[in-house]
């Protein structure tokens, strides 16, 4: 097994770990270490763990240690690790939590024995070394009697080791070292797959700007290129192991999350693929890739939908709200059509346009799950486009409500634009982005929403797809529209409040609250809660409730305004009738 590190040519440290299977009783340690640079062997049987070899520069050690004196031997298995630091001539054995200093620190001169590589392995046994590893890389999961490693001599000067950025295992250091960002382990199967004896080239690309990624994907760290001269290597019986050490990814509590996977480059189509590699996440800062071919490798971070908590409850709230809002909007449309024949109020066509767009939006949202299961991808492409259009149309009409309110309050003596202007903006303007997205393609279709409680049974709906194009379209159209709508709505609420707060009726708390609530429904300021849904489940439920029942709240606002108008007219009529009767009595008298 060959080891290639991106940060140096020689190993500053070497670690061999395993699980020693032995009998209960009195296990012992057999040490036979002498200067040289040939082999070091680690073997075990039912009673003894042996460490023999010539790898040190000065240290000599010949003795046995009874491990039961250190509280060991009460179990039939013991984890152990052997640490070797050639630059310090230090050899340390750790059995469970007990450390044994086999060779103490020194500063050897001349040469050191490093770059230990496996040369042979003992037979498979019942009592021996199981789950052997070099650093964090598993050699074998089976139980063998022992392992032998061969070393190489290198200059032992401080400058030689300090010229590489590698990590030592002890607290005592010759110089400051950094942990390697990438390690590549080439298996013996690679040599068998090569037709001729040639070199394996491993290139590390720190500049990744030339490797194209999608909008929702980024390269985490460096890109590794592993090639064999004039050969194509694929379908290896034993995978290549590449360890990437990187910064931790910050994951926010939102409806989207980062996934971390190993990818390779398709040399024909020049794109990243996940085929041929298996990802093992060893920690938040360590990702290991097992790949069966040679090409470019890297770890890609991809933005993916996060499973939704309380999906069933949110779905029920949305369905009830959309049903109530649709019925309310239909009733409101009938009321406004009747009112438009009786009066010439400039705001009636605007209210009618908002009610119509919200009615279509709530109806499609109510039916989206049923249509997705019945019609599939083909029908969902049209339903998703219709939902997006009705959503943008509703946002546009809410913006027109804001502008018209500003016109009535601050531009008093100038007539409002004609109704056809509002209809052209409210129904025509949202068509432009929807038509463009339909022409681009791969935006509208079937969408699956996964529940955190049951990932195997996703909720299907017709909406924007979970693709790069759809994500970009969502941010450009929906998120931008909501931000502009909420910002202008809040500003308009403040302006209206400052303008008419001096009126006598606004001095009543109930009237002021109902007026602000009604205007908030018209202006769509409740949609601003969608930016804060990641904060808590309470905000998520509150946002879902208000946006789903928006049509109902708007109809309720008009009902209350009509009731208050009739009540005020009735009061005025009663006062007028009473004054007339009093005047007639005075004349008769």
Automatic annotation (TrEMBL):
Protein name: Adhesion G protein-coupled receptor G1
Chief site of localization: membrane
Membrane topology value: Multi-pass membrane protein
A biological-process GO annotation: adenylate cyclase-activating G protein-coupled receptor signaling pathway
Annotated keywords: Disulfide bond, Membrane, Transmembrane, Transmembrane helix
Subcellular location: Membrane
PROSITE patterns (UniProt xref): G_PROTEIN_RECEP_F2_4 (PS50261), GAIN_B (PS50221)
Signal peptide range: none
A Pfam family recorded for this sequence: 7tm_2
A GO molecular function held by the record: G protein-coupled receptor activity
Domain G-protein coupled receptors family 2 profile positions: 314-562
The organism's taxonomic lineage, starting at the top: Eukaryota, Metazoa, Chordata, Craniata, Vertebrata
Keyword flag ATP-binding: no
GO cellular component: plasma membrane
Domain GAIN-B: 160-307
Source superkingdom: Eukaryota
Transmembrane segments: 311-338, 350-374, 394-413, 420-440, 475-497, 509-532, 538-559
InterPro entries: GAIN_B, GAIN_dom_sf, GPCR_2-like_7TM, GPCR_2_secretin-like, GPS
């Amino acid at each position: 097994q060959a080891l290639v590190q991106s940060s140096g040519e020689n190993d500053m440290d070497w670690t061999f770990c395993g699980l020693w299977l032995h009998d209960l009783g009195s296990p012992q340690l057999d040490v036979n270490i002498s200067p040289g640079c040939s082999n070091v062997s680690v073997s075990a049987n039912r009673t003894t763990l042996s460490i023999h070899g010539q790898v040190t520069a000065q240290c000599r050690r010949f003795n046995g240690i009874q491990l039961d004196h250190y509280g060991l031997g009460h179990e039939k298995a013991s984890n152990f690790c052997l640490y070797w630091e050639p630059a310090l001539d230090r050899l340390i054995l750790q059995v469970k939590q007990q450390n044994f200093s086999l060779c103490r620190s020194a500063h050897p001169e001349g040469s050191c024995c490093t770059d230990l590589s496996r040369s042979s392995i003992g037979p498979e046994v019942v009592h021996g070394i199981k789950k052997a590893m070099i650093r964090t890389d598993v050699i074998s999961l089976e139980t063998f009697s022992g392992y032998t490693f061969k070393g190489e001599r290198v200059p032992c000067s401080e400058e030689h080791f300090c010229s590489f950025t590698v990590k030592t295992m002890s607290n005592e250091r010759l110089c400051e070292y950094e942990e390697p960002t990438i390690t590549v382990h080439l298996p013996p199967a690679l040599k068998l797959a090569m037709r001729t004896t040639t070199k394996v080239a491993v290139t590390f690309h720190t500049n990744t700007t030339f490797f194209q990624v999608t909008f929702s994907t980024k390269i985490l760290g460096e890109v590794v290129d592993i090639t064999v001269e004039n050969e194509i290597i694929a379908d290896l019986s034993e995978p290549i192991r590449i360890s990437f050490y990187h910064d931790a990814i910050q994951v926010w509590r939102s409806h989207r999350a980062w996934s971390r996977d190993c990818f390779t480059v398709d040399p024909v189509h020049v794109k990243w693929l996940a085929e041929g590699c298996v990802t093992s996440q060893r920690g938040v800062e360590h990702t290991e890739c097992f790949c069966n071919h040679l090409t470019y490798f890297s770890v890609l971070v991809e933005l993916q939908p996060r499973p939704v908590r309380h999906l069933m409850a949110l779905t029920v709230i949305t369905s009830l709200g959309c049903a109530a809002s649709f019925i309310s909007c239909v009733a409101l449309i009938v009321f406004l059509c009747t009112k438009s024949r009786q009066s010439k109020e400039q705001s009636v066509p605007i209210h009618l346009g908002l009610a119509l767009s919200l009615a279509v939006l709530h109806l499609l949202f109510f039916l989206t799950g049923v249509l997705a299961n019945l019609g599939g991808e083909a029908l969902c492409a049209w339903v998703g486009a219709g939902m997006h259009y009705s959503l943008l149309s509703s946002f546009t009409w809410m913006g027109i409500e804001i502008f018209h309110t500003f016109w009535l309050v601050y531009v008093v003596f100038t007539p409002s634009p004609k109704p056809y202007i509002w209809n052209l903006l409210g129904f025509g303007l949202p068509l432009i982005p929807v038509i463009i997205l339909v022409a681009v393609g791969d935006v509208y279709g079937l969408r699956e929403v996964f529940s955190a409680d049951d990932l195997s049974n996703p909720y299907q709906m017709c909406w924007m797809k979970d693709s790069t194009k759809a994500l970009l379209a969502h941010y450009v159209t929906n998120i931008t529209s909501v931000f502009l709508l909420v910002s202008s709505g809040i500003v308009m609420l403040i302006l209206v409040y400052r303008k008419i707060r001096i009126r006598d009726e606004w001095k009543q708390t109930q009237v002021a609250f109902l007026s602000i609530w009604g205007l908030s429904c018209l202006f769509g300021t409740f949609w601003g809660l969608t930016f804060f849904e990641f904060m808590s489940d309470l905000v998520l439920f509150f946002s879902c409730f208000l946006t789903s029942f928006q049509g109902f709240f708007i109809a309720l606002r008009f009902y209350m305004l009509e009731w208050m108008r009739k009540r005020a007219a009735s009061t005025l009529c009663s006062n007028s009738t009473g004054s007339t009767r009093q005047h007639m009595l005075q004349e008769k008298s």
